[in-house]
Amino acid sequence: MSKKGVSKISGNPSPKVGEATTYTVTDWYPATPQNQRVESAVTWELFKKRSNGSFTTTNIKKTGAGIFTFGEVAHKHTYRLEAYLYEPEGMGTSTIEITPQPVAVPRINKVELQYVDDTPGTTFSFTEKMRARAQCVNLQGEKLKFSLWEDDAAGDGHNANNLLIETKEATVDQTGVAVAEFMLTRALIQKAMQGETDPQKLEFYVTVEYFSHNKHATDNVNLNNPLHNQAPAQQPRPQQRSPAQPAPPPQPAGNNNTPPRAQNSPAAEKPQSKKEEKGIVESVTNWWNNLELWDWGEAKGKAEAKQPSTPQPNDGKTVSVVQGSSVEELMDAYFAKKEYTKQTGEAAGTLEYTIGSNGNRTSTDAEKTRIANIILGKPAIKALASKKEYTTLEAIKSALTKEAYNKNEKITIQTFKLGAEFKKVNSAALDSKLYLVARTAGLNGKQATITIKEKDGLIKGSPDAILPALEITEAQMEATAASSGEVQGTEKTQFTGTIENGMVKIPIHLRPKSNDELTQWKEKLAKGKEDGTYTYKFGGPNNVANEDDKKRIAQIVLNNAKKGNANNTKIADGKTAHLDEIVKVLQIKAYASGDTITFKLHKKEKELLYLNVKAQGEKQHDKNFLKAEGAYFVLGKNCFCNRDITITEFEIILKKLRESEGVSNTNSVFYADNCNVDDKTNAGFLAQLNKIFKDFEINTCIRKIHFLAQVYHESDKFQTTLEYANGSKYDPGRHADAIGNGNTVAGDGEKYKGKGLMQLTWKNNYSKYKAYSGEDVVASPLRVAEELELAVNSAAWFWTQGKVLGNGTEWTVPDTSYSQYDHSVGKKFPKTQISNTTPSGTTSYATINMNLLADKDYIDTISWLVNGGGNGRQERRNYLKEIKKIFGYPEDCANTEATATGAVTIRLTRKWQTDNSTIGEFSIDNSTISGYILEEKGPDTTVSGMEQRVPIGTYKLEWHSGTKFAKALKLSNDVVSASRAILIHAGNTAADTEGCLLPGSSKSTDFVGGSRDKLNEIFNFVDEQGIDGAQIIITEAYE
Fold first, then answer.
1. pTM for this model (two decimals)
2. Annotated region Disordered: where (predicted)?
């Protein structure tokens, strides 16, 4: 008699304790009647393995859904789960042997202080580095925050007078260790001098936090102050707050200082720590005020994130003393840009915010936190940055005084001042405005002199040559570049400033005074370093009669030398020749076949700079900074074409992409629960990426940008190489395209679901990749997800030759919403003909190399080819835009045509309108510049003097200078005359427009922020590209 019932089940054989796990029926015996093949009739029975190896029932049975949650002690045992209609068989594919896994509880087991030689530390010098080392479990790849705090209380107890000195982040390595280093110099001394009642010694401790919820303090440590002069006993100093330490933002009064503790966490089993008793936790939340948000976020859950329970501090205290010594030191120097990002806590004013929806309950703290977090992400709050202001979660919660809010109700929120921070930059274009920054200890009031030096001397001709630049004022730093006239600033080779609060900062313009010399610098950077010569042999007669002939024949010579021909070898990779060098060696004469000329070759190299700093204190200090491989400042275009991405660059790319979406883990890859790839290291992943970039000619900035944007989305932000869903949707009968793509039997969907960086899907695609690679991924498709080399290689294969198209030699982009968006409709590309012969036959098809579409920047059409639908369409656009910013594309790309076009095109799409104004989004072709533009209200008009916006259309742009605006862009066309003076100038509100266009970097109702900075960005770009042919195209797509 034929078997009937369940023949196969699937599910996780290693479920985590406490998590509900679903098991499903994936196949039935053929003799099972169709009307009985229903999971609701299936019995699921759980058996337990006994000491003698046999399985006996646990008497746990359920009918219907196979959902099981294993208890805490279950990880000590092995189980067998069976599904059946009639009777259990006790073996075979209708059973799964299950070994539950214990939940990995993250802990910070120990924090200790060390000297720089890694030995345990108790007594330190002010001039040395102190290392704080956290030993952790189940936190590999996660970030910890290390906070160095001053304790001004005597003895070994902490109190709420503690002051934050410095915070740092460190990543837990594969051994479970994270280390942060602190300089015990100026920071400690300055803090000690700010109200310390006993300046003879300084106490400090270190708090280590896991996502700012897990506090774990080291032992108290005392520092003997080497600068101490014994104060008279009868003149104690009162404690005062330093003007440099503004009052913290107001915090709502809480019931106690104990943060919420996660259920079943290590902290839940401990009493209140002494730090909490002393009020230290409240001090911490002053600078990290989303503690409640995290708890709320965990309560909500994140399916894709690896967010463990929150541990609390492990306490322990001993006291040690730090011996003093001289503290003068040059600590760091670098190029920087000034950004207003520092949260000072200093009150700025208030913001009246209008609630946008009904039914917002705020009667409990949790409800307030939820609503406050929503408000915190709104454009009106983000727009505060354009006014150099910000607000906090706690400030918004404090403003929510009612039990509920409805649409159009208003609240008043406290705002705070953003302070300036000088952010280090690793590269910048020639002609940029920057700051030279030096950080010191013990040298306040002294003079520091900074010199810019070349590593190789591409500009000045010799290694370590001094590079001059212009010293400018703060006003000149902020000023818009003039379209003509004398360049502002004083050319210098040394830059001197007074050290204040441990820092000297000098504004400079990175260029020479002379425009002619600037042109020479640019030519030298463009050519690169001289590297040998090339001898060219003429293959036939060439008559050079005049200068025009020289240029014409020089171009032919250059083309032949670059490509190579029968008489001339190809110029070596990495080297190039330049037209003007060939013109120089050509003579006015007739060249016969076999005649030769010899001209210079150049090797494209980066112009690397470093800084020398000198300062006179008790002794002369003289030190170089940035002078090391990987540390040099790059002058010019730091291009990613035809080179490997470095590990530092990759980790910056990863960090910024993750931060752009608020992903907490910003530093590691492939950490999703379902990902079993064999190498999860950043270095291993990058090595494979660099390999396929070479092998598949993904070798320019724009090709790498597009490829990375696609695979970042396909792999869920580089978190996994395996599709999360079970793949049954790809089975025949469930997907219309299943059989046509080779999925002919039930189970093929799961077997050939998405794997690898590009989520290779369908059996036919696995067959094609097998024919290409020789790897039998048809029989073993999981290899594509579990072997990193195949995961990456298969993505590059699909990118260049995996997308199957119809027959023919040319592909015309069809008219779709995708091609309409990226303007690729009707564009033609050559098809690649693929033919792979294997023992089982020959695979032939036509395909498209997506590198060609990347060259044209066709983002949506590429997304359509990769995915076949609209999945993640906007996210892919966002990733492309973000990676372009990270790459500095096209500004920093040596191979882009953008800087040579001279035709600036601004694209403005009107999207929001009120009774007072119109706001749209704009971007500039061939640049990363984008933002918002505010105009007059509608309707459109061509009549002069009307406070209404101009009609949609294309407008010519030209420079304008008048009594009100010294420099502006004026737009005009056949219906809007130039005499109307419709300008692009700075402003924030409808009252500022007067019919004109106001750019900005942020928006809220009837307002754009950051207008002057955005205008300068536009003007600088137009200055660089040239005004000839510049235009603005205005369209509308109202929301």
1. 0.45
2. 217-278
